[in-house]
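Changelog excerpt

This revision adds worked examples to the README so contributors can see how folded entries look when concatenated. The first example is reproduced verbatim below.
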Amino acid sequence: MISTSASIPSVAFSANGRFIAAGDAAGALRMYDKQLRNVIFNFNCVRDVRSFVLALHGGHILAACGNNIVSIDRQDGSQVSTLTGHISRINAIAYSPDPTSNSEEGNFTSAEESFFRSA
């Protein structure tokens, strides 16, 4: 089902197990429908996709694309927004639902390469 020649450092399943998302070192993020056995969309990042998260209640994927965080629509793979400001590649991104927030997307945290380097 997953066809790529690049390594795949990040994979996630939807809460119901029907959908699989995979990000690869070549910069492709793909969403698959496991039941129908087809690709829903391909999203191409400028750099490798080291990490991403599926928002639990919203319709977005937050992907660490190089040194940017990109919000992607889960239905059609269109880019919703981009967060910039990291000086190095982002290694990890995490999602945490926020019951006190009105936002369906909750909160997320990221870690970049420079964060782990000693001074």
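The second example, added in the same revision:
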Amino acid sequence: MGALLRNLVLIAGCTVFAGTLCNLIAHAANGGYMPVLVAGCPEGLRLSGTHVCGGPGTRLGFLCDYIWLGKNIYSPGDLAVDYGAALGVPSMVLWALVFAARKVWAFCKLAV
């Protein structure tokens, strides 16, 4: 059980790292901004501190924000970070509980 949880934490960490790297690459390729690829938005229009409307001049568009989920737009990197966090946090908590339970069990065996 401990090894499985440890592996899940490692996979989650790698997924978060890969998603963050994808987002950083998209930002760097587009002058420090994350392009949002939506119809009807003029290219270069600033949407927030780090987001601008993308267009034909957008570099690495497949890494930019274009995935609609509900009312928000996400990039593949955002989804990887979210997935890794959703997998990693519960796994880390369970892993810590298993580790603590083993330590308590070992202590109880010594006390008897």
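Reviewer comment on example two: DSSP finds two helices and four strands in the chain. Strands lie at 34-36, 51-53, 67-69, 72-74.
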